[in-house]
Amino acid sequence: MNARLHATPEGATPLPMILREPGGPGASSLDVSIVIPCLNEEPTIERCVAEAWAAIEEAGVGGEVLVVDNGSTDASAALAHRGGARVIHEPRRGYGRAYLTGLEHARGRTILMGDADLTYDFRELPAFISLARQGNDLVMGSRFRGRILPGAMPWHHRYIGNPILTGVLNLLYRSGVSDAHCGLRMVRADALERLRLRSTGMEFASEMVIRARQARLRIAETPITYAPRPGGSISKLKSLRDGLRHVRYMLAYAASGWFLVPALLLAAVGGALVTGVGPAPVSVPAGVLMLVAGGALAQAHLGLRLYRALALDPNERMRSALRWALTRGALAVGGMAVIAEVALAALLGETTRRLTIGSHHGRMFSMLVALTIVTLAATAWMAALRRTARAAA
Question: Where are the domains of the chain?
Answer without folding.
Answer: 2-252, 257-392
